[in-house]
Amino acid sequence: MKFVAFERAMQGTGASRRLRITGRTPGIVYGGTGQPLLIELDHNALFHAIKKESFHASILDMELAGKSHKVLLRDLQMHPFKQQILHIDFQRVEATTRMTVKVPVHYSGEENSPAVKAEGCLVNHVMTELTISCFPADIPEFIAVDLSAMKKGSSLHVKDITLPKGVKFVVKGQENPVLASVSVIVEEAPAEAAPAADAKDPKDAKDGKDAKDAKAPAKAPAKAPAAKK
Question: Which of 37, 91, 128, 205 could form a disulfide with 29 if both were Cys (CB 3.0 to 4.6 A apart)?
Fold first, then answer.
């Protein structure tokens, strides 16, 4: 993947702020036998480039002052809430120098696995990228992982897959971390519906009222007023 950069003469917080106002992003290129090089890039072009996976995990061709340089993205600083790239770092790539990079993991085949097709399970992608070590020419764009053999209760570790030629996994904490695992889908029992109230026929309701009235004690007749003498 190619991109264009320009040499940057000024440095410092104030200079970088003024640069961003003009639609440029400050950056730096370091590593190798050369001195660190200050650069600037068109922000809009860079913002579209960082949306591509290859920009983050492959060797890039940087055109600077009419010359092509092999570089690798090392750091990207974003604004806390704006869609703005504040600063970008690249490392020079030398063919004879072994490099440590992060490469995305691409999973496939899980829909054809016994775990999903026959056992009603779910395959979880535990890791989305791997840290590897290799020479620049051997850096893969991604690591392909086939999940078609996954079964209920199984898991797939880094040592279970075959890495591309010349590529080694870099241990960071766990020597053999889990790439993917199978979990059983637990179905919730349907909630029991509350029993519906019995609908009463109007006639039954009337009969019930009549029966209630029949049981009630009869009221004594009212006494007639005494005759005046």
Answer: 37
Q: Helix or strand or coil: residue 102?
A: strand
- CB-based contact 74:55 (threshold 8 Å): no
Q: What are phi and psi of 151, to 5 degrees?
A: -125, 170
Name the 3-class secondary structure at 177: coil
Instruction: Give the lowest-confidence range in 71-85, 88-102, 110-124, 183-197.
Output: 183-197
Tally the C-alpha atoms within 13 A of residue 47's C-alpha that lie toward its C-beta. Answer: 14
pLDDT value, residue 150? 96
Q: Mention every residue, 6+ apart, whose C-beta is less than 8 A from residue 140.
A: 103, 132, 164, 167
3-state secondary structure of 208: helix
Give the residue among 18, 40, 20 at the shortest CA–CA distance from 29: 40
> Vertex 177, ends 139 and 54: CA angle to 5°?
25
First to last CA, the chain: 126
Residues 6 or more apart whose Cβ sits within 8 Å of residue 121: 115, 152, 182, 183, 184, 185
Mean pLDDT confidence for 10-22? 90
